[in-house]
């Protein structure tokens, strides 16, 4: 007979609500038998006291460039994806969109093939693919290689449409400078999540591209036109347009805490702000440097930078981002937890992730009450 374990003495976040002092009854396969404020002791064979810790669905991260000492760009293979995903599982993330940074057409095709093969093989943690470029703006390239940025051509669009059909989730970061509204519309209609990023587009252009099918902006505030009093830019469009979700790197380095607080209060409509790590090769390791497109990136003081000081991804995990968002910015804990779980899952069309539901087995985290760390109760 299956053993039933009751977790009690803490809070439970089910993907929508934070339930204080809730109980959760699991069988030994990790399937949820009951949850809430009921008295489940009679049904349990054993119990675990949480001591004020929080039970939460595994995190969902839609922007992960590397981990475990490797970059997806360096070797876009199933083996690389397995290494990256395992590193992030170790940090509490149940599902990722591995992210290819601007590269050649050949590397992009290889990345698509690897992601499709990983999903078909059931590699734990791989939920699809994020292509961040190469159809960006050189003016807002950040750490992307200017020599690899280019317009989207017919062959590119055909490859992306095929990838959108083959993958459970395909996110594509593009700039209006190097894509057309018709291309965005075709991608959105095929099921891709089109995200505006690395762009100097103005407010009106960003709004027009949302009407064409863009549903998101990539790492809000970073590598995009800023919010000005007469020129609201992409930042202003993201906050004003209820149809544009926004990824956010909440490390206190990429975006000032006051800017996060202002954006959180200003965001309009149902499309959420959600957390991403923009993690690179050092995630889950003590690695001090690595290369991207032949350029050294250094890890120091919580930053990843090129030699000239340009930020190149983030040295961040989602439980740390939760702490910044809740403790330092002041976002309510329920909202912060949603931004790391069900909100990104919904943006990517992966609504089976980021939730705890009766009758289902779901990756389940135990997060320290002070948000200082986490560990698995039910591993992915």
From TrEMBL:
Residue ranges constituting the Amidohydrolase-related domain according to the UniProt record: 54-365
Example GO molecular function: metal ion binding
EC number: 3.5.1.25
Positions annotated to bind substrate: 143, 222-223, 230, 254, 311-313
Keyword Hydrolase: yes
InterPro entries, A to Z: Amidohydro-rel (IPR006680), GlcNAc_6-P_deAcase (IPR003764), Metal-dep_hydrolase_composite (IPR011059), Metal_Hydrolase (IPR032466)
Keywords attached to this entry: Carbohydrate metabolism, Hydrolase, Metal-binding
Pfam families, per the entry: Amidohydro_1
Gene3D superfamilies: Metal-dependent hydrolases, Urease, subunit C, domain 1
Catalytic residues (UniProt): 278
Class of the enzyme per the UniProt entry, highest EC level: hydrolase
Residues binding Zn(2+): 132, 198, 219
Cofactor(s) the protein needs: a divalent metal cation
Highest taxon above the source species: Bacteria
Claim: Protein biosynthesis is one of the keywords in the record: no
Binding note for cofactor: Binds 1 divalent metal cation per subunit.
GO biological process: N-acetylglucosamine catabolic process
Family of this protein: Belongs to the metallo-dependent hydrolases superfamily. NagA family.
Name of the protein this chain belongs to: N-acetylglucosamine-6-phosphate deacetylase
Organism the protein comes from: Pseudoruegeria aquimaris
